[in-house]
Each structure stands twice: as structure tokens, then as C-alpha cells.
Amino acid sequence: MRLTREKTIRLSHIITDVLVSTDEVEFVEDRDTIRQKTVQILQDLLKEEETVDGEVRKKISSQKKEILEGSEEWELLYRKYYTEEMRRMGVAHQPSS
Asked: Which three-class secondary structure string do you get for 7-36?
């Protein structure tokens, strides 16, 4: 998912506001430092997601048979490979055996 810098900053303000209003959270740093770190975390996650998207698209395009983007088969493969990549990165939940 691509977000503009403005949307990322807006999200960081919302997250910081929620943290400030939560009684269980105590700030060790000032509010702006927390917000800036939140922006950095969001940007890093979005970069990772973009990398995963590229890897998934590369896997699909390397299939022997051409699979048209937007087709049901492409969508199924995309979800499957995306989930596999996220699991490999330790992001997605892995069901117990």
C-alpha cells in the first residue's frame, strides 16, 4: 500500500494521540520524538511491503504459463505468495501443526 508522506504523518499523529490517551502508556520521550519514530516505523513497514509486492509479482511472472494480472488465478497466486513471503519475514501468523 502506498501512502503519501502527509498521510503517514497524519497516521503518526493519530497513533500518538491514542497512546497519550491510554492510561497504561507512560511516555519516556517527548511526544514529538514518539511521533517521529512512528513515522519512521510506518515508512519502514511500507518499504518492506513494497519489496514483498515486487517479489510476489516476480514469482507470478516467472510461471511457465502466462497469468494475466487481475484474473482470478493471478489474484489467488498473489495472495498465496504474499502470505508465504510475510510468513517468511515473520510478519504473518503461522498456524500450529
From this structure: HHHHHHHHHHHHHHHCCCCCCCCCHHHHHH
Residue 67 maps to a domain: yes
Q: Which domain holds residue 41?
A: 5-88
Number of domains in the chain: 1
Q: Distances in Å between the alpha carbon of 14 and those of 21, 66, 82, 96?
A: 11, 43, 28, 34
Q: Tell me the per-residue pLDDT of 5-55, one tens digit each, with 9 for 90 and over.
A: 899 999 999 999 999 899 898 888 899 999 999 999 999 988 988 999 999
Would you put residue 61 in left (φ > 0), alpha (ψ -120 to 50) or beta? alpha
DSSP state of 42: H
Asked whether 19 and 11 are in contact (CB, 8 A), the reply is no
How many other C-beta atoms are found inside a 10 Å radius of the C-beta of residue 38? 19
